[in-house]
Write a structure and sequence with these properties.
alpha/beta; 6-stranded mixed beta sheet; two-stranded antiparallel ribbon; 5 helices
C-alpha cells in the first residue's frame, strides 16, 4: 500500500504520468492511492494502513508539511513504514525539517544527496504501534563467588598446642627482669590498725576519731550531708557504689551525720 500526497497546483499531465509509472512499478501485488493535501483530513484513511507515503513526488515540489500533517501521516503508516518527503530549497532549512520529524515521532531520518533543486528526507515509523506492550525480561544478578580457604589452610590453635616444645610460647616469668623483681620486693608493706587493740599513731582510717568520741561519750559527727545524686539520705539500698555515706544510716537532706560508736 502506497499513499501519494499532492496539491491542486500540480499539472494534471504530471500527475497522470508519475502515477502511471508508479503503478506499473508496483504491479498487481500493490496498491497506489493519491490524496490531495488540502483534503487530507477528509480522506477517511485508516490508521496503520500504508507501508510507504510519498510527499512532493511531482515536479515542481511545492509541498511544505506542518507538524499536524506529519503526525497524521505517521498514524497512517504501518509499524516500520517509510515516509519520503521532497521539499523546495526555499523556505525552512533541512535542520528545521529534521527537528520537526524527530519531534513528531519519526526515526532513522536521513537527508538525500545529489538533488540541486530540492531537499529530500526519508524516515520511518518506529517498529511498534502506539499503546503496544512488550515483556521485559529480568535477569537476576548472580552473587559474586567468594573463594573460601580450605580447612587445612586456616590457622588454628588449641590447648594441646601448648605442650608442643616446637611452639614459640612466651614464658610469663621471663617478662620480668631482676630489677623489676627487686623493686617489687622492696616496696613498703601496707599496714593498718585493724588487727591492733588501739589505733595507730598516724591513723588515717578514722579509728582514732571513733575511739576518742567513745572515750568522751559523744557522737562522731561527719560533714553536712549534701547529696549529688539525691539518693544518699535514703540509705544504702539507694546509694551509689562510690557514695561517701555508704555504711552510714539514713538521714534527712542537709542534716549533719552523727555516728554513736558505742551503738
Amino acid at each position: 500500500e502506497i499513499l501519494v500526497i499532492t496539491t491542486a497546483s500540480v499539472p494534471s499531465d504530471e500527475v497522470v504520468s508519475k502515477l502511471g509509472a508508479l503503478r506499473e512499478h508496483v504491479g498487481n501485488k500493490g496498491n497506489v492511492r493519491m490524496e490531495l493535501l488540502e483534503r487530507l483530513s477528509l480522506a477517511g484513511i485508516d490508521d496503520s494502513r500504508f507501508s510507504f507515503v510519498l510527499v512532493g513526488h511531482f515536479d515542481p515540489p511545492d509541498v511544505t508539511l506542518k507538524g499536524e500533517q506529519l503526525a497524521f501521516l505517521l498514524k497512517t503508516l504501518k509499524a516500520g513504514g517509510k515516509l519520503k518527503i521532497r521539499e523546495p530549497l526555499e523556505g525552512r532549512s533541512a535542520t528545521e525539517l529534521q527537528s520537526l520529524l524527530t519531534l513528531t515521532g519519526y526515526v532513522d531520518i536521513k537527508l538525500g544527496e545529489g538533488e540541486t533543486s530540492s531537499k529530500i528526507f526519508t524516515c520511518q515509523k518506529p517498529s511498534f504501534e502506539v499503546g503496544s506492550s512488550s515483556q521485559i525480561l529480568s535477569f537476576k544478578k548472580k552473587a559474586p563467588k567468594v573463594e573460601t580457604k580450605k580447612s587445612e589452610d586456616i590457622w588454628t590453635i588449641s590447648a594441646n598446642d601448648f605442650d608442643d616444645e616446637e611452639d614459640d610460647v612466651l614464658d610469663e616469668d621471663g617478662l620480668l627482669d631482676d630489677d623489676d623483681i627487686q623493686k617489687a620486693s622492696t616496696a613498703p608493706e601496707v599496714t593498718d590498725c585493724s588487727t591492733k587493740k588501739r589505733a595507730c599513731k598516724d591513723c588515717t582510717c578514722g579509728r582514732a576519731e571513733m575511739e576518742a568520741a567513745e572515750e568522751e561519750n559523744r557522737p562522731l559527727t561527719g560533714p553536712v550531708a549534701a547529696s549529688a545524686c539525691g539518693n544518699c539520705y535514703l540509705g544504702d539500698a539507694f546509694r551509689c557504689s562510690s557514695c561517701p555515706y555508704l555504711g552510714m544510716p539514713s538521714f534527712k537532706p542537709g542534716e549533719q551525720v552523727q555516728i554513736f560508736p558505742w551503738n
